[in-house]
Specification:
The chain is α/β, with parallel strands linked by helices. The chain has 4 domains: 65 residues, so0334 like fold; 172 residues; 210 residues; 173 residues, no CATH class. Helices cover 25% and strands 35% of the residues. The chain contains 10 helices and 47 strands. The strands form 4 sheets. The chain has a 15-stranded parallel beta sheet with strand order 3-6-8-10-14-20-24-27-30-32-35-38-41-44-47, with no helix packed on it. The chain has a 12-stranded parallel barrel with strand order 9-11-17-21-25-28-31-29-26-23-19-13. Strands 12-18-22 form a 3-stranded parallel beta sheet, with no helix packed on it. α2 links the parallel β1 and β2. α4 runs antiparallel to α5, α5 runs antiparallel to α6 and α7 runs antiparallel to α8.
């Protein structure tokens, strides 16, 4: 039995060693060669035509090969060279055509490799180097790929160019130990968009590692990316690690101007993407991430991302666009860039389960600029929809990071959350935030945030006295505790900024006012001006204003406010009827008079009763009212409004004192709530009321 096994093993060994390797040589012949070592073929295209048996290897001996036909490599057939001395070129100049073509139906097991070759695009005259379509288990390694016109290598899970997910994803593909240079275009006759040195789509479990890729050889505005999605991506379980990626520094004034700053761009990440251990000059841009069946959507960790020095143009670090779920960013060093981690959401998009921890953000800013130079972390609507409130954010943890603004030209804010429709459960813990000129943290509109915890952070040298800065309201369920605050050396960033702390918030609040809200504000001014003239249309204007407030309260579910506005509307109806009364000669029956003692008593009783009722309601039924109410201040404010409206129905001179009291208390109330536009608005109303009284 032992001898039989020995014979079988020997036969197997002999079969394995049988000539499954075929040679090509620069001195060979396609006409008379047979692929043997002593009688090699001349071209790779001919060898690929002749060799079809799976498991075969085409060995490319040292030399330069200029292919006149496309190399169509069979399933299971591999190509091995002898390193950079095995040089493959092509005489083909056609667009959309590669030198090595590995195209099959979806789900085909390629089980082959391409290694130790130098693929030369001959100074951008050849379009693509390698195209792998529909095949799995294809490994490309130890190759040099240089100077291709449009793209270097493409791995496409589909067998066509439809930008949709494949029915069967390609699996087991690898790209490693390669050197890729000057193989990605931007802005060509075929379209103004970025291509990649390596392009992948429809892949499951692909590994990309130990590669060196450089794209900085072309003029500004003509360099593509190092790694890019293909056919809109659709990527699962991708691992990208231990690569060195170098993209030319960005030279545009905005995204899309002279290209983008991306080194990597992926769309439709479907879970399990792991990017780690890389050194990257350029940004990583991710569009749409879902978790799928994986423990996370995307994890980016232990990378070095940034530029050698600060650019005078905006350089990004990590960019997440549209919807992103289960994102982990940890243990990275991001340096000499403008924006560290940026979320650019858009219409009806969701950001959920975001973890940013243990990262170092160093020298965040620009070499030149006006202060609008980026952020450590920014969550916003992006640029495509004009910063309209569209996205929702939930479950974000920012923990144990170090944010250091660039000295001399620092950004305004360290952490910025702006433009959201809703946000909840945000935790900012144990971070160091230093040197941002306007504030360490900003939220706008802050009123949409429910549950914000800021604790145990070290805040130094930031504007706004190292306090967070809120525009359009304040967060509900807000806790700011156990934070350490101190000035930078000399305290240069700790002072008051009129532009950032007053003008900018007023501008953003005014910008967020809807047309119907604008009509409401105008009608209230008319309400006061008509009242000063004893014009009966004062009360219809008041009804319009209260009606608009009621509509807003109804839409936002503030049922308690509807009762207050209903009282105002009822008084306005009554006042309109009263002011319309005339005697037989057409003279007004109700005239402007001062209140008598009894009438003053009624007014103060109304003020006290309504104030007490409102104070109790705000305290014990606060969920039915506008979030962030300051019970005693808002009780005084609305009690003064109700009393002022009642006395106006009687044409009492004291009306204007009540209105002045309401506007005066509204100014600090709105200031505390971070509604600076409405502070200014009520200051204007106070001036109008004072003018009406003394005029």
């Amino acid at each position: 039995m032992r001898s039989v096994c020995t014979v079988v093993l020997l036969l197997f060994f002999c079969l394995a060693q049988a000539q499954t390797t075929y040679d090509i040589s620069a001195t060979g012949s396609d006409a008379v060669g047979n692929g043997a070592s002593g009688n090699p073929w001349r071209t790779l295209a001919h060898a690929a035509l002749m060799v079809k048996a799976a498991g075969s290897i085409i060995h490319v001996k040292a030399g330069t090969y200029t292919e006149t036909e496309q190399v169509k490599l069979g399933i299971g057939v591999s190509v091995e060279g002898e390193g950079d001395s095995s040089i493959i070129k092509s005489a083909l100049k056609d667009d959309w055509k590669e030198i090595l073509s590995l195209r099959s139906e979806e789900g085909t097991k390629g089980d082959q490799h391409i290694s130790k070759l130098r693929l030369d695009g001959q100074n951008l005259s050849t379009f693509w180097a390698i195209y792998v379509s529909g095949r799995s288990n294809v490994h490309i390694y130890d190759c040099s790929i240089v100077d291709f016109k449009d793209r270097g290598v493409i791995f496409n899970g589909r067998n066509d160019d439809q930008a949709i997910a494949p029915a069967t994803y390609a699996t087991g593909n690898k790209f490693y130990n390669n050197r890729v240079s000057n193989c990605a275009a931007y802005n060509t006759a075929n379209g103004v968009y970025g291509r990649g040195c390596l392009n992948i789509g429809g892949q499951d479990g692909m590994e990309i590692y130990n590669n060196t890729m450089v794209q900085n050889q072309r003029p500004n505005g003509y360099n593509g990316y190092l790694i890019k999605y293909h056919n809109d991506g659709y990527l699962k379980g991708i691992k990208i690690y231990n690569n060195t990626l170098t993209k030319i520094p960005f030279a545009g004034n905005f995204g899309g101007d002279n290209g983008w700053d991306f080194a990597i761009e992926f769309w439709n990440v479907q879970g399990g993407m792991d990017i780690y251990g890389n050194t990257i000059q350029g940004a990583i841009d991710i569009v749409n991430t879902s978790k799928g069946m994986y423990p996370f959507g995307i994890r980016i960790h232990d990378n070095k991302i940034g530029q050698p020095v600060l650019n005078s143009h905006y350089e990004s670090g990590l960019i997440f666009e549209v919807s992103n779920e289960s994102v982990i960013v940890e243990n990275n060093v991001l340096s000499n860039i403008s924006g560290g981690v940026l979320f650019y959401a858009q219409e009806n998009t969701i950001l959920n389960d975001i973890v940013i921890r243990n990262n170092r953000f160093e020298e965040i800013g620009r070499r030149t600029g006006n202060g609008n130079n980026g952020n450590g972390i920014q969550v916003s609507c992006g640029t495509l929809l004009g910063n309209i409130n569209h996205y929702s954010l939930s479950d974000m943890l920012i923990e144990n990071n170090r944010f250091m603004a660039a000295a001399g030209n620092a950004p305004f804010y360290g952490i910025e959350i702006t433009g959201g429709a809703a946000a909840m459960n945000i935790k900012i813990r144990k971070n160091t935030i230093h040197g941002f000129t306007a504030a360490c943290i900003v939220a706008n509109p802050a009123k949409v945030i429910d549950s914000l915890l800021i604790e145990e952070n070290i805040l130094s040298g930031n504007g706004n006295g190292n306090d967070p800065f809120y525009i359009v309201g304040t967060p509900s369920n807000y806790r700011f505790k156990n934070n350490t605050k101190s000035n930078a050396a000399g305290g240069s960033n700790g002072g008051f900024s009129l532009r950032q702390e007053i003008l900018r918030p007023v501008y953003y609040e005014a910008k967020s006012i809807t047309p119907i809200q604008g009509i409401g504000l105008l009608t209230f001014i008319l309400f006061l001006l008509f009242a000063r003239k004893e014009n009966k249309y004062s009360f219809p204007a008041g009804m319009v204003y209260a009606g608009i407030l009621s509509l807003a309260a109804f839409e936002e579910g503030h049922k308690g406010m509807l009762i207050i506005y209903a009282c105002v509307v009822a008084m306005c109806v009554y006042g309109w009827l009263q002011w319309r009364k005339r005697d037989r000669k057409g003279h007004r029956i109700i005239r402007i008079t001062r209140s008598e003692k009894r009438e003053l008593g009624i007014q103060f009783a109304l003020f006290a009763a309504s104030g007490a009722a409102l104070f109790a309601a705000f305290n014990f039924a606060g969920r039915f009212f506008i979030p962030g109410m300051i019970s005693w201040m808002d009780a005084i404010l609305y009690a003064a409004v109700l009393t002022g409206t009642w006395t106006m129905t009687q044409k009492k001179l004291e009306t204007w004192y009540w209105w002045m009291a309401a506007f005066a208390i509204a100014i600090p109330a709105f200031f505390i709530k971070h509604y600076l536009f409405y502070c200014c608005w009520n200051a204007l109303l106070l001036a109008i009321a004072g003018w009406a009284l003394f005029k």
